[in-house]
Design goal:
Layout (H helix, E strand, L loop, with lengths): L8 H34 L1 H37 L3 H28 L1 H7 L4 H16 L1 H16 L5 H23 L4 H26 L14 H33 L3 H37 L3 H35 L5 H14 L3 H16 L4 H24 L4 E3 L2 E3 L7 H4 L2 H19 L11
Antiparallel strand pairs: 1-2
Amino acid sequence: MKDLTQGNVFNHILRFSIPMLLGSVFQQLYNVVDSLIVGNFLGNSALAAVGASFPVIFVLISMIIGLTMGISVVISQYYGAKDMHRVKKAIDSMMIFVMISGVLVGLIGYLFSEKIFILLNFPSEIIKEAALYFKILIAGVFFMFGYNGVSAVLRGLGDSKTPLYFLIVTTVLNIILDLIFVLIFKWGIAGVAWATIISQAISFFGLIIWLNKKHNFIKINIFNLEFDREIFGKSIKIGAPAGIQQTIVGLSATALTSIVGSFGTETVAGFAVAVRIDSFAMMPAMNVSVALTNFVGQNIGAGKIDRIKKGYYAALAISCGISFILGLIFLTCSKLLVAFFTPDPVVQLVGSQFLMTCSMFYIFVSAMFMTNGVLRGAGDAMAPMLNTVVALWFVRIPVAVIASKGWKSFSLLSFDIHGWSGLGSRGIWWGAPVSWVIGFLLAYSYYRRGNWKNKSLVKQ
């Protein structure tokens, strides 16, 4: 546990961010290893199936992930105020919610798996494999929820290192199981899914065992949990907008994948590979933002507004600096990076076009994440949600559709507008950078207004 209300601001955020960033790198290795093995040993159809499954899974789990963010903010604010009794109640309430929701989401996803992919109009040759992969992963979503919930608790208490240690071990295990299930047992895409589920289950249970031995006051006993409606209500107030925001992100990713799917299997496969690589560029922004959220939570709980502003600028310097470097690497090495995943030249071309388009704008997505991180940590989760709605559904998706497919000729106010055939699949990728720029401008303008300063749960 770490008190973030005292000491050097820059060092706190950097040291808090590094373990989470390393943890995200290892967590992404789950997906990268899956894609490497699938792309090189199972072919384009299986690679496209894995890529198509991810946004659908994200939609189903995004609300829960957002709600655990709300729990983390509540815990950090009470911990900043040194109210340990409410910290314990918040943890118990979170665990009850995670267990129930894990079972429900897993059951719903399993029952409607194949119908989801048919509804999204994916190429027929990938639906069967996508549904099989999805069924196995969603059946084990309980472990994913549990791990994210316990990790959120630790982050709220200022501990970002412990989840990293468990994640390193389970990532190595996932790689070993991938190789065994696919290359030796010949389980195909099902083996990739089973390797991920088994690894996540071990990570979740291992983290609970460690917590129970290390910290008596936050000991988790699933048979003796106390649900506090008031504290959980506060968590929902913060977490529901964050959860809706994550769901909006997931739905937009699904809509985007549907647009990509209309251009064929090779385009879906190239998009799947590029997203895997692109996720590494998103990680610094996401993790420094989470560190900033917990930093803001503890400091607003302690009533230290000036310290929050220093933390915001420190987080911007760290995150934007890393994003600039990664952008240069991806811009210059895009074809080489995509080639690691697939030998197909068409898939390589699609993936490299995605990376070259988006990598020039990583600084904007980083700045957007930092600004929203301040607002969320202060307890003002509604503003980031609305910013996300506008950036994704009013900017990214329309730009992706228009730039890729063009428009037909039409008349407007007595003027004839000539039709345009669009840029093809290349046009889809421009939706992301345009939405990042708009999203940052909206978030920063709200931050400057200062309304977030009055959203703390802890009254000074």
